[in-house]
Design a protein that fits this description.
Belongs to the casein kinase 2 subunit beta family. By secondary structure, the protein is of the alpha+beta class. It has helices spanning 39-45, 57-61, 76-83, 89-92, 97-115, 119-130, 191-198, 204-207, 243-254; strands at 6-8, 15-18, 23-26, 148-150, 162-165, 170-172, 217-218, 221-222.
């Protein structure tokens, strides 16, 4: 049996599947460290999956939370069974496990998109955000503000994940290449904005008054906005720092 015809079954190295002989081969010496690891824990612990949180199984088992996903993912039932560790070997040996594994990862990503906008999911992401696991904004004047993963589309296969900075309100590509193949739909377009509505104390616009705007200068003199190389649309990066500024501005407008 050639090595290329054997595919390791997801996270469990104790079982392999042969597409040539159409049967299972159990490793007589399974790894004790991996015997009791769930598929979800395995998936989230892989290198490059630090952006993900572990979705609770009770959330996945509630079919209401999965409405419509059966139309978006091939081998939906088999992928769902793989995620919940309830696969039937008799069924699996008839399938291409590489395809089922891919479908399971896509399905988990779409479930993850829905989970992280729930109260529990937001709480888990807040714990990661507080530790800076998602990284910092590369913009110098954002003073190392923590960023959040986000998507520019809620549809799979459209765009990769990006990082949203709540200080400059802009999007950036992850600095490490290991994150650039993560689909943006696994986080969605709603998450980062709902996150700061839920946890306003984590919003740096209120906690870190560091919204500086870079001013180009030549020999110490500001470059005019009317210059072809001058600054453009500074107002896009401007925002009120507190309610007193808002009150004073409204009073001046009324006068």
């Amino acid at each position: 049996m050639s090595a290329r015809n054997i595919v390791t079954l997801s996270h469990n190295p104790a079982i392999t599947y042969s597409s040539k002989d159409d049967d299972f081969i159990e490793d007589p010496t399974p790894s004790p460290a991996n015997e009791n690891v769930s598929w979800i824990s395995w998936f989230c612990s892989r290198p490059g999956r630090e952006y993900f949180v572990e979705v609770r199984e009770e959330f996945i088992e509630d079919l209401f939370n999965l409405t419509g996903l059966n139309l978006a993912v091939p081998f939906y039932n088999e992928a769902l069974d793989l995620i919940l560790d309830r696969n039937n070997p008799e069924t699996l040996k008839k399938l291409d496990m590489g395809v089922v594994e891919t479908s399971a990862q896509i399905l988990y990503g779409l479930i993850h998109q829905r989970y992280i906008i729930t109260r529990m999911g937001l709480h888990q992401m807040a714990e990661k955000y507080s530790t800076g696991i998602f990284g910092c904004c590369p913009r110098v004047n954002c003073c190392y503000t923590h960023v959040l993963p986000a998507g520019r589309s809620d549809v799979v296969g459209r765009m990769p994940v990006v990082l949203f900075c709540p200080n400059c309100l802009d999007l950036y590509a992850p600095s490490s290449s290991k994150y650039k193949n993560i689909d943006g739909s696994f986080f969605g377009t709603t998450f980062p904005h709902l996150f700061f509505e839920t946890y306003p104390e984590l919003n740096p616009k209120r906690a870190i008054p560091c919204g500086k705007i870079y001013q180009p200068r030549i020999y110490g003199f500001k470059v005019s906005e009317f210059s072809k190389t001058g600054p453009r649309m500074h107002w896009l990066r401007m925002y009120l720092t507190d309610s007193s500024d808002s009150d004073s501005e409204s009073e001046s407008e009324s006068d």
